[in-house]
Structures are given as C-alpha cells and as structure tokens.
Request: fold
Amino acid sequence: DTVITPNSHATQKYVWFKIDGSQDLMTGMAVKKTDADELAEAGTGFSAATARAGVIPNIVMKHRLTRFTFQDCSDVSVEKITVKSKTTGKMIVAYDMGGEAVAPTQTLFFELPTGSVEAQEAALVLTDYNEETSTTKPLESVALVKGEGNWGETYQNIGHCLMVAPGEKEYEMVITLKQTFKTDDPAGKTTITSPIVIPDSAAAAEGTSYNVKVKVYGMAKIEVEATLEAWKEGGDIDVDTNLDGGATEEPEEPVEP
Reply:
C-alpha cells in the first residue's frame, strides 16, 4: 500500500526505491514567493486564482542522500572502490495534512517492505561517468603517479561519485589495488578494507558531500582522509588505516637482487 493515514486528518503517499550508488534522490516543495501574499496567508494554496494574484510557487529542490567523491595519491593502480550502504526505503512524495495536522517531520525512510527477504545493505560500486551518453560506466583502472613535492601532496580524481544512504557515522570502504613490484613481475592485486568516519562523531547528513582522499603506501599501508565539500559544508574526515604500524614516509624503491 502506498497510502498511509497517520491520523484522522492526514493522508500521505509514498513510493519505494532502491539505490545502487549512481542515483541521487531529490525532493522539492513549492513555497510561496510574493511581496504581498494575502491569499497564501489565508491558506488557499496554489491555483489559477493565486497565479492571477501574483502568488508564484518556487519549487526548492533538495538532495536527500550523502555523496562521496574520491581522490587518491599512491604508486599503485586503483581497480575498484566499494562503500557499504543501506539501499532500500520509501519516500513520502505527497501529503494532505487536513488543515489541522502539521507537515511530516520526516519523509525519507530506509527500511524494507514487510515480508521482504532482501538484504538491506549492499556494497555500492564506484563508477565512471560517460558525458557523451549521460550514463555511468564501469570504473577504469586509474594508474596513479606520484606528483611533485612531498609524498602524499598530489591527488588524482577516481571515478564519478557514490550516493549513499545518510544517517550513518561510519561507512565501510573496500579498495582493490594492483601493484607491480618489479618491472618483469606480474602485477599483484589486494583488497584493503577501511572505514570512512564522519567528523565529530556526527551522522552523515542529507545533501552533504565528502571528498574522500586516499593515500596508499604500496600494499602495506593506506591512509584515508575525507573532506566535506559542497553540496553542504560540514567538516573534514581523517581515516588512518595503517596496516603495519610503520612510518608514513615515502616508500623506498625495491632493490634488484
């Protein structure tokens, strides 16, 4: 059922959704925009009469998910990045509050339909974006090259972005890396699991974007730093996933036997 009646006055309509990391959820509500808005103050809403009176609806669209963008600085190839997130939920898209009831305070719910046996969480996969077709495509391997300056100062963008469910303080990230230790050796692959932790012990907010900056020191050490950027300002995230407890200086080049 897509219609609920939370009380005797209100009726709300919702739709079910499932995200895969490439889609954004946005909602908008028409707000009254006029200098002298007597009709709006009387609660008549938007109609031909209000239009003739100069009451102009202004629909303000808002992002409802959290966004992660990724940058990396290392001497390895990034093959894949996934972030675990809730994927299924319902969103209220229309409601009639019956005059006496107040507007709903929450319109986005990450939950499964009654009786569903699907897993609520999934590893969302970072993809690239094809500007010519306006579609996503599989992530191409990013062969990262150390830039000028001190180790870890130069970052390269990886993929497009990932849209995840808001409301969590920590998200599990898995990075697949490939590295050739000697020029005549085949490349080896490994996966590293590291949390993306939201700053100040806060939960990720709707409409918030974090730039996740990953430092990889070969296959032995990785550091993650996430910086919050527009959509909405919110803070920085630093994640240290040092696997061996060693120093963070630039790794030495392998010595030929």
In short: Residues 178 and 188 are 5 Å apart (CA to CA). Confidence is low (pLDDT under 50) at residues 34-40, 147-152, 245-251.
